[in-house]
Design a protein that fits this description.
mainly alpha; 3-stranded antiparallel beta sheet; 18 helices; 4 domains; binds flavin-adenine dinucleotide; two-stranded antiparallel sheet; FAD/NAD(P)-binding domain
Length: 441
């Protein structure tokens, strides 16, 4: 193999060309040492360079006057990772390290003289928390611990890999350095939870991912207690690509555009109600119209600021993507009204909150969830309404215009356009044919 895959600064994978049989690792901290072991295990020759006198980096040891003091890690949270590194070169952790369990694992001392003993064992830790912070905190600790145990029980290593190397990396790539949206995070969480549910079910059946066969998987997907079935498909496909499972198939759902589009007439009825019904709150009307007419998710609407609305000689524009959209008169009025209300409120309350839809907490916008709830109360089914709006817009506008004006990714815009059978490519070809025929004539 003549390629090494590394991670660039932004977290995207990049392949190095050229010979890789000899690798130089800079730094003999835990990361450098474990990389070295994995590279050796993969048959590379490795040279490690370290500027300090000894290896270890922050996991160091001071030897002063007969006293040995660790300078870094106190708790070995995931010994399996250390085990993995030793296993890569055919050694074992037990053969190389003497790990001595300590009770308590360590003692945290605070400036006011109080101390908290940190125990590995659950009951001991709960008792210590009850002593230190009261019964309520101890109950919270027990809940957290139970959740973590469920999360990491059987396939904790696999889930850790899936979360770190797949979900997180994908999130980073998709957000391209921008803040991750609430929805992106929710989707990643659901994928992770789906993996947990499947693993827990397998455990109940005395199965593991490697021993799970197609028939077992189908038993789960058709059972009543299968939760987040569709999302689990994502996890299963990843485990196959990683060769953790064998012969399991979980066909990807083909993207066929909106599966449950809202009736277009119903969409216009709701839009008309929002445009004219003065008994509804103006901010709710505006938010609803941004979803129904401009296919904006509640997460995006909730993060709009007064700066996104631009007053013009004839009305107002909204900046949803790089190119602003001219708002039709009644929507422009609602938008400008909302900006005025926000500015007055900011002056009265002496706040500088820029949010168009402020939340309960000072200086914060309304959460995506709360925005979604408000829209649902107006009778809007969020996903269906957005699908229908995007579907309609995709039949009317070229993908590039959709992407630039609505602030959606171009690849998504192209997919929507295809789904809507938007004939823009054919139309453009037709126009150019007509133009060239005219020119020739
Ligand atoms: C007080 C403290 C407590 C901690 N407690 C825990 C804990 O309980 N559990 C836990 O999991 N983690 C803990 N950590 C974190 C853990 O110690 C570090 O995450 C881990 O040791 C970092 O390893 P690393 O290899 O990434 O970096 P480092 O340990 O920083 O190693 C980098 C190495 O590269 C060398 N180097 C840098 N530049 C060059 C160069 N140009 N040329 C040659 N060599 C170079 C450095 O000298 C160093 O040896 C703790 C850290 C500290 C400081």
């Amino acid at each position: 193999m003549n390629r090494l895959t590394t991670k660039s600064v932004k977290g995207t994978a990049k392949a190095l060309r050229g010979p890789t049989h000899h690798v130089v690792v800079v730094g003999a901290g835990l990361a450098g040492l474990s990389a070295t072991l994995h590279l050796l295990g993969a048959g590379r020759q490795v040279t490690v360079v370290e500027r300090a006198d000894e290896p270890g980096g922050r996991a160091g040891l001071l030897d002063r006057g007969g006293y040995r003091v660790d300078t870094g890690p106190t708790v070995l949270t995931m010994p399996d990772l250390v085990e993995e590194a030793f296993a890569a070169v055919g050694h074992s952790m037990a053969g190389r390290l003497d790990l001595v369990p300590l009770h308590p694992a360590y003692r945290a001392r605070f400036a006011d003289g109080s101390a908290l003993d940190v125990h590995t064992e659950g009951t001991a830790m709960e008792e210590e928390i009850a002593r230190f912070a009261g019964a309520r905190e101890a109950v919270g600790y027990r809940r957290l611990r139970a959740w973590l145990e469920q999360l990491y029980r059987e396939g904790r290593k696999i889930l850790h890999r899936y979360a770190t190397w797949h979900l997180l990396r994908r999130l980073r790539l998709r957000s391209r350095g921008k803040e991750t949206t609430y929805y992106q995070l929710q989707v990643a969480r659901q994928h992770l939870r789906a993996g947990v549910y499947l693993l827990n079910w397998l455990e109940g059946q005395n199965l593991t991912l490697p021993t799970c066969r197609q028939a077992d998987l189908e038993r789960w997907t058709t059972s009543d207690d299968a939760r987040l079935r569709q999302e689990a498909g994502h996890f299963v496909r990843w485990t196959s690509s990683q060769k953790i499972t064998r012969d399991l198939s979980f066909p990807a759902v083909r993207w066929n555009g909106p599966t449950q589009p809202m009736d277009d007439e119903a969409r216009w009825d709701t839009a008309r109600r929002l445009l004219h019904d003065d008994t509804l709150k103006p901010e709710d009307r505006l938010a609803g119209l941004l979803l129904l007419l401009y296919a904006q998710w509640p997460a995006t609407i909730s993060r709009l600021t007064v700066g996104h609305i631009e007053e013009t000689d004839t009305g107002a524009r909204i900046h949803l993507g790089p190119v602003p959209v001219e708002l039709p008169a009644p929507v422009a009025e609602l938008a400008l009204q909302q900006v005025t209300v926000r500015r007055c409120h900011a002056t009265l309350a002496r706040t500088n909150s820029p949010w168009l839809f402020p939340g309960g907490q000072p200086g914060r916008p309304i959460s995506a969830w709360a925005m979604g709830e408000r829209l649902r109360k107006l009778g809007i089914r969020l996903a269906e309404a957005r699908s229908t709006a995007l579907f309609q817009l995709a039949t009317e506008l070229p993908a590039a215009v959709l992407a630039r004006t609505l602030g959606i990714d171009i690849t998504v815009a192209v997919k929507w356009q295809r789904a809507a059978a938007g004939d823009w490519a054919a139309y453009a070809a037709e126009v150019s044919r007509r133009t060239s025929t005219r020119q020739r004539g």
